[in-house]
Amino acid sequence: MTISTELQVVLLTVGILLAVNFLAVMLHFLYRSLTDSPLHDAIRSVIYELDKFADNMENSQKRSTAIQEINSLLGWRRILVPAALVGWVIDIEVAAIRKMQKATNTPDLHDASKDV
To answer: 83-104 and 39-57 are packed helices; what angle lies between their axes, rounded to 10 degrees?
Structure first.
């Protein structure tokens, strides 16, 4: 039994999202545990960018722009994905980032006034 191209794209996307989320969780835990390590600053910059992404995607105009850019990129490859589905994935990723921050007690590095 062969898997259709569309199903392969879906499975690849789900696998990438799971891998990225797992890596992000590990980085949050490492950030909190490696306070005196030289890696701490490198991990902090990655978490900063994740938080910046989440903050940007909470802005509806930036979120709409991101959805359009993703659809235009996928459309170029002739992969049609509904905008609502792309928006749903973005919302899930933002929620996952916020839950990671809360679960690991990592401060909001993008907004210094929210530091713990």
So the answer is: 140
Rounded distance, CA 92 to CA 112, Å?
24
**Rounded mean pLDDT for each run of 10 residues along the chain, 116 residues in total:** 76 90 90 84 87 89 91 78 87 90 78 50
User: Taking a C-beta distance cutoff of 8 angstroms, is the pair 40, 34 a contact?
Assistant: yes
What are the tokens at 8?
A: 């392969």
Give me the amino acid identity at 2.
T
State the amino acid at position 54 in one-letter form.
Answer: A
Say whether pTM exceeds 0.70. yes
- CB atoms inside a 10 Å sphere around CB 101: 21
Residue 80 amino acid letter: L
Q: Please give the structure tokens belonging to residue 7.
A: 């199903």
The per-residue pLDDT for 115 is: 44
Closest CA to 13 of 97, 72, 93, 76: 93
Q: Which residue has the tokens 């938080």?
A: 51
**Can you say how many angstroms the Cα of residue 111 is from the centroid of all Cα atoms in its chain?**
17
